[in-house]
Amino acid sequence: MPEYIDVIACFNTAGEIIPLFLNIQDRRLRVDRVTDVRPAASLKSGGRGIRYTCLVHGRSIWLYLDEARWFWEPCE
Known about the structure:
- By secondary structure, this protein is mainly beta.
- It is built from no helices and 7 strands.
- A 7-stranded antiparallel beta sheet has the order 3-2-1-7-6-5-4, with no helix packed on it.
- The two termini are 18 Å apart.
C-alpha cells in the first residue's frame, strides 16, 4: 500500500505540475530538482501514475502523482 504524503507543487502556464516541497513524517523537505517525469507503476507499493524522479537533500527519490494524491519511495 502506498504511503500518501502532502506535497506543495507549482502549476505553471504550460500545464506542468512541479513538486516543490514534500511533507514526510512531520518534516518539510525541499525538492532540489526534478530530473525526470514519466508515466510509471510502482512495483513496491502497487500504485501507479506520473513518476517524478527528484533530488531531495542529494538523494534520488521517486514521487508519484496517483490521480489527485502523492506518494513516494526511494529510487533503487
